[in-house]
Structure formats: C-alpha cells, structure tokens
Amino acid sequence: MRTFRWRPQWTIGVVAAIALGAAVVIPLSLPGEPDVVVEGLPGHAVPPSVLEHVRLSSPHGLDGLTATLDGEPLRLHRDGDALRPAVTPLPEGVHLLVVTPPAGTFGQPEPIEFTFRVDATPPSLEILPVEPLRRGETGEIRGRALGAVRVSGGGEQTRPAGDGSFTLPVRAGAGTVTVVAHDEAGNAVSEDVAVTLRHPGMKAVHLTASAWASPVLREPVLDLVREGRIDTVQLDIKDESGLIGYDSQIPLAQEIGATTELYDARAALDLLHEEGVHVVGRLVAFRDPVLGRASWESGDHHRVVQTADGRPYSGGYGDYSFTNFADPEVRAYNIAIAEEAAELGFDDILYDYVRRPDGDVAGMVFPGLTTTPEESIASFLAESRTAVHHHGAFQGASVFGIAATRPEQIAQDIPAMSEHVDYVAPMVYPSHWGPGEYGVADPESQPYDITVRSLADFQELTQQNGHATVIPWLQAFSLGVEYGPGEVRAQIEAAADLGIDSFLLWNAGCRYDPRALPPT
After folding, report:
1. Which residues neighbour 90 within 8 Å (Cβ) at sequence distance 6 or greater?
2. Which of 66, 86, 357, 371 has the CA that lies 20 to 30 A from 195?
3. What are the CA-CA distances from residue 460 to residues 60, 375, 490 (Å)?
4. Answer CATH for 203-287+324-361+370-516 from 3.30.70.330, 3.20.20.80, 3.40.50.970, 3.30.300.30
5. What is the sign of the dihedral through the CA atoms of 79, 84, 88 and 92?
C-alpha cells in the first residue's frame, strides 16, 4: 500500500519584536515532519474493502485528527499509534477522503484531500479448450482476461497482452489447473481447466478373467505381444455376470458375493507391464445380475431397473440383469471398483454396458431419475472420470454402433459422453448392422465399407464436446459370415484410413488369428 505524507511548504510569518534594534523573522511551520500520514491507499483502483487497510496518523498526535468520506464524517477508532476508519464496504466509483490534521504549534493546518476509485468488478476470463497432451509433453493454456493485470495457474503466472490474451505453460499430467485472473484492485475470477492426457492408442485383444486364468488362452495372446502384433491386452474386471475376476476388497462386492479369485490382479498386471503391455480393464457397469439380485432380495429395489408394474426388468437378459444407472449406490459401487482397479495398476478403465437396457423405454422405470437417461449416463461418466484420473488411469466407454444415429434407443448420447471420457469405443461389428445401414447393402459381407462409414460418423460426434478419441471394437468372430484374417484386416484398414491407428478386437472365445495382425 502507498503511504501519503502531507508536508507543509515553507511558511514565513513576521513577528513584531525588537531585539538589538533589528526585526526578527520566525518560521511559523518548518519543513520535515508531515502534518498527517495516510497509509493504505494505493495509487490505483482499490477494492470495496479498502478501508480495512487505511491508517491515519500525525506527528502532532491523534487528538483532533478527523476525516470525512464523500462529505460525511468518518468514524475513527484508535489502533496503537494510528487511527483506523470504521470498516464498511464502499460502492464502486470515485470517493473523496478529506483528513484534517490536529492543530499544530501555529494553528490549524489545512485539510488534505485524497481521491481514489473503488472497483468491485472482477476481470472477465475466457479459456480455450486445452488439447490433450501425451506423457512428458508441455502444452499451453490459452485465453483472454480483459481487465486483468495478472493471470496465474499451475504454479505459473503471466501478464496479459493489451487485448487481454494470455498463455500459460502446462505439463502433461497436471490434471485440473485453477486459472485465476487478477485485476489491479485485487478482484479475481477463476476457472478450473482440465489438462488431460492424450491416450497413447492401442492395438488390443479382449480377454475374460477365465481366459487369463487358462494358459491355453493366455499364452497365445502373450505370443502376440512378444511378436509385436499387439501392444495392449483388455482384461475383464467385472463382466456381464456381475462377477469381479479377482478378490476385490470393495465391501459391497464382498457382501453380495461378487468377488472371485480367477486371477491375481497384481500379479497379472506386473507380468503384463514387464512385457511392456498397456492393460485395459473392462468394467461392465449396469448389466449386473449379482448386484441386481442381492439388491432386490435385500429390499433395495431402487437399485434395480423395473417394469411399469414394479417387477425387475429383464428385457431378455435374465432376471435382475440391469441395475439402475440413476441410483447413487449403484453408481458409487461401480466407481469404487474402477478406483480400486486403477490403484492396482490398470492403465485404463473401459466401461461397458454404460447404458440403459435396449427396448421400449416406456416399459421401464428408473427409480430416482430426474433427468433424461442420456443425461444421467453422461453425468455418471463425469463423476467417474474425476476418480479414475485421480489414480492416473484413462477412462473409456464402449458404445453401441447405433448410438451415433439413434442415441435414445440405449441412452448413449455420443457428444455428451465424449465430454467425460478419454476415448469412445464404438462396437461397429459388421454383423450387427442391418442391410442398407450407412448405404451399405450387406454390411457383414462388406467389413471395410460399413466400418469406415460408421467410424467417420463417430469421429465427427466425439469432437463436438471435447477431445475424446475413437478406438473401435472390431469383429474377430464369425456369425453369419465366416470371418478370417482378411475380414479382420479390412476393418483395421478402414479405421487406419480415417486416421484411427487403434483398435480392440472382440472374440468371446478369446482366440485370435495372428495372420490378422501383422507385426508393427
């Protein structure tokens, strides 16, 4: 704070006195000590609380020192060797402080005026989306802060340019950075900015917990890794049965009998990481008959999707199959498993069945749902992402191929979901498309055509609300048409032609033909 010291000029007075026959000139006020000192009024705009910092003093003492503010007497109280004004927030605008020093040796000095401006309006702050960064990279937070004299965030600070534009450096892995814009009066405005890691991409195959436990299925996949054909293994955490593949320590999982010992999670992750493998943990969220049955039998019916007449909804998936995505306890259970898995060392948490049951929504009841199903699913991913990122893992969401054009059928709004995941994994299996979809006459017999057209749609949708990438699930199984290495490669090439260098191969039997995966 600036200190104002009012010093009088040389003031000369003549005193009529005869001394040795000569006139004596005596100064009425000598220079040096100021008549009044005002501390706490800086020479720029000040906040409404400025009076908290103002102190008034005088070498002549405090008795008789008075002040007015905007023409009204200002109440003062003693604080040590100074006087402080009564604290009151001041309105915006220009104010006039008049201080009258106490009387000196030669009479009452002139009052001293101080004009200052109160500014209670914080600067504006607009921040551009931050591009995701790969590990080890340095990026930038860019934006505009009109009226600010300083912008800070992530341990860095800068002075905005004349048009308010600014740039702050930021490192990958910074997480959420709070950017604060300060003006000269001390007003500030802040905004939290997500600095996300860019997913490194993957060439992956799916393994169930049982498949990992079987050397007959596990070893061929590890051979694919060692031959450079894949760099990622997707290993189930919780599958469609509602069972967790390892001995989870989540209390509710233990209570309902959801834990197994099909594999030792820590040992499996250590082995895969030693091989240089990225490990994706697939977590089936809301198709969970174990939690569904246990919840219904315990009277916690709110955890289960119901029919209009109050029975558990099956939709052809079996009794108690679908838990209620809108229920806080169901959401918390899945997020707790995701956190545990991320802490164990899974590099990604890839949600599956993060949707409502397919079918006529009019025949379904979701207790506690206050928004649309699409909004509720997206908000679950937002809630989960904070927890997953806190443990250093990426978050993805597996989605139906039809979600690009018919989101309401399964409550998967791709732009809304993309805002809260690092990648979207559309299941664009050619066998799952009907004739004529995307203008392709026979999708299952035209794997390249249906894959390239459907993925182009997903690429466009994911960029509307964020920077999520697209990593597709591709078909490595036969249904109506025999799928060999050529059909699998056709899908991989379709994705690559769109600039998508990543994929996850699905085969429920967990068997993969190495001829479909040339070494890279």
Report:
1. 48, 50, 51, 118
2. 371
3. 76, 20, 21
4. 3.20.20.80
5. negative
**Which residue type occupies 134?**
R
Which part of the chain has CATH 3.20.20.80? 203-287+324-361+370-516
Question: Please, which pLDDT band fits residue 105 given cuts at 50, 70 and 90?
Answer: low
Answer whether 236's CB lies under 8 Å from 209's CB: yes
Residue 265, phi-psi category: left (phi > 0), alpha (psi -120 to 50), beta (remainder): alpha
At residue 30, does pLDDT exceed 90? no
Cα dihedral 5/6/9/12 (nearest 10): -120
Helix (H) or strand (E) holding 310: none
Q: What is the CA radius of gyration of the chain?
A: 36
For residue 259, give both structure tokens: 């834990």
Q: Is 193 helix (H, G, I), strand (E, B) or coil?
A: strand
pLDDT of residue 196: 83
Q: What pLDDT score was predicted for residue 153?
A: 95
Distance in angstroms (rounded) separating the CA atoms of residues 353 and 381: 12
| Mean per-residue pLDDT, 82-87 | 93
Note the helical H segments in 248-372. Answer: 251-255, 265-274, 289-297, 328-344
Model pLDDT, residue 26: 30
Q: What is the mean pLDDT of the chain?
A: 91
Domain 126-195 has CATH 2.60.40.10: yes
Backbone angles phi, psi at 91, to 5 degrees: -70, 160
Asked if the model's pLDDT at residue 28 lies above 80, the reply is no
Q: Which residue has the tokens 């604060």?
A: 180
- Residues 437, 441: Cα–Cα separation, whole Å: 7
CA–CA distance, 481 with 296 (Å, rounded to integer)? 41
426's CB contacts (< 8 A; 6+ apart) are: 398, 399, 400, 401, 403, 404, 454, 455, 458, 470, 472, 473
Please tell me the total number of residues recorded for the chain in this structure.
520
Q: Nearest-CA neighbor of 119 among 71, 74, 186?
A: 186
Q: Give phi and psi for 509, each to the nearest 5.
A: -85, -5
From edge to edge, which strands make up the β-sheet containing 66-69? 72-73, 66-69, 93-100, 112-118
